């Protein structure tokens, strides 16, 4: 960071060629896989493209440039990297696409890897929720932000850490990506509620802290002129960062909870629909079949509902005939 005039938000884009190459290669592989599978849902492909676009916004746009000078803008990048981008990556289902595109042998290998004990452990809530909480707390309420502002490699590692921890948390909870878990919707709902507590805690603490946690942010804005939303006082900047973590972080989690509740209701409705359909089918087929059996047993169109033994004998005889077996003598 350096002192000087305030940069222009709309023109202060940066280039990260290595990241762009990685994103391009990943997108090409995704497209090839989708073409090879055929009939891959457009919504999943759209989720992938949106995730890639948000990567560029988070790393190269004016948001990324100002995130080096403003704590609240840095918090926006944090939420994009730890919640929004991981969400769209999970919805894009690249793991399932990979298992389908690689054929039977490759798909089996992918499924075996996802159900391995190691992968199951690092994607289980007992690991991902503490990891998510530790990442948020330790990178915001300690001297980490000051060190990150002074060393670019720490900043880059921080973004990777956010992306990985957010992706691992959401992977078995949202959508139906190929994983080694099959949690109930109730368990998923509770897990997200517990994880949301970390956003609230960090946000509130930042708003209540009476000293600068990372003075490097305000120091980098020396000479920027009058105070404004892009040049706030040090404590106003820190308080705004806490408010964004609290309100926007919890707001994103609430959107995930609503989405999960919709999936839950939809799954319950489909389950009841299948049960009702099966019941209607049995209600139509079974009585007529038993009625025919009773008529066969009695040799008449007049059916007495009390003739159960004769009907049962005829029913067993018909089943035996259907399977090519001789009827059993009573």
In short:
With 330 residues, the protein is mainly α. The protein has 14 helices and no strands.
Query: What is the tally of helical segments?
Result: 14
Structure classification: mainly alpha
Distance between the termini: 96 Å
Helix content: over 70%
Strand content: under 5%
Verbal overview:
The chain has 330 residues and is an all-alpha fold. It folds into two domains: 259 residues, no CATH class; 31 residues, no CATH class. 74% of the residues lie in helices and 0% in strands. It contains 14 helices and no strands. Helix 5 packs antiparallel against helix 6 and helix 13 packs across helix 14. The longest helix has 65 residues. It is globular, with a radius of gyration of 30 Å. It starts with 16 loop residues before the first helix and ends in an 8-residue tail after the last helix.
Can you lay out the helices and strands and say which pair or pack?
Layout: H1 17-37, H2 42-60, H3 62-66, H4 71-92, H5 94-101, H6 103-114, H7 117-122, H8 125-140, H9 144-150, H10 152-170, H11 185-208, H12 216-219, H13 234-298, H14 308-322
Helix pairs in contact: 1-2, 1-5, 2-4, 4-10, 4-13, 5-6, 8-10, 8-11, 9-10, 11-13, 13-14
List keywords for this structure.
2 domains, 14 helices, 330 residues, mainly alpha
């Amino acid at each position: 960071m350096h002192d000087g005039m305030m940069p222009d938000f709309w023109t202060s884009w940066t280039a990260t060629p290595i990241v762009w190459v990685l994103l391009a290669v990943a997108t090409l592989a995704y497209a090839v896989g989708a073409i090879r599978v055929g009939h891959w849902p457009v919504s999943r492909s759209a989720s992938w493209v949106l995730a890639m676009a948000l990567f560029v916004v988070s790393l190269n746009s004016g948001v990324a440039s100002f995130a080096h000078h403003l704590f609240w803008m840095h918090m926006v990048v944090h939420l994009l990297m730890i919640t929004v981008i991981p969400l769209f990556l999970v919805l894009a289902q690249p793991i399932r696409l990979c298992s389908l595109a690689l054929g039977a042998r490759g798909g089996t290998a992918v499924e075996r890897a996802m159900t391995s004990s190691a992968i199951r452990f690092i994607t289980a809530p007992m690991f991902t929720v503490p990891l998510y909480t530790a990442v948020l707390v330790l990178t915001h309420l300690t001297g980490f932000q000051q060190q990150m502002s002074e060393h670019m490699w720490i900043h880059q590692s921080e973004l990777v850490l956010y992306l990985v921890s957010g992706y691992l948390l959401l992977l078995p909870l949202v959508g139906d990506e190929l994983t080694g878990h099959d949690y109930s919707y109730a368990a998923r709902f509770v897990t997200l509620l517990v994880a949301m507590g970390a956003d609230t805690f960090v946000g509130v603490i930042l708003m209540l802290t009476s000293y600068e946690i990372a003075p490097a942010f305000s120091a980098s804005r020396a000479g920027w002129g009058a105070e404004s939303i892009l040049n706030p006082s040090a404590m106003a900047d820190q308080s705004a960062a806490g408010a964004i973590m609290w309100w926007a972080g919890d707001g994103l989690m609430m959107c995930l909870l609503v989405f999960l509740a919709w999936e839950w209701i939809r799954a319950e409705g489909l389950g009841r629909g299948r049960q009702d359909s099966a019941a209607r089918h049995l209600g139509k087929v079974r009585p007529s079949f038993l009625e025919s059996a009773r008529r066969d047993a009695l040799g008449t169109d007049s059916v007495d509902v009390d003739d159960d033994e004769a009907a049962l004998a005829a029913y067993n005889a018909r089943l035996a005939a259907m399977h090519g077996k001789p009827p059993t003598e009573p």
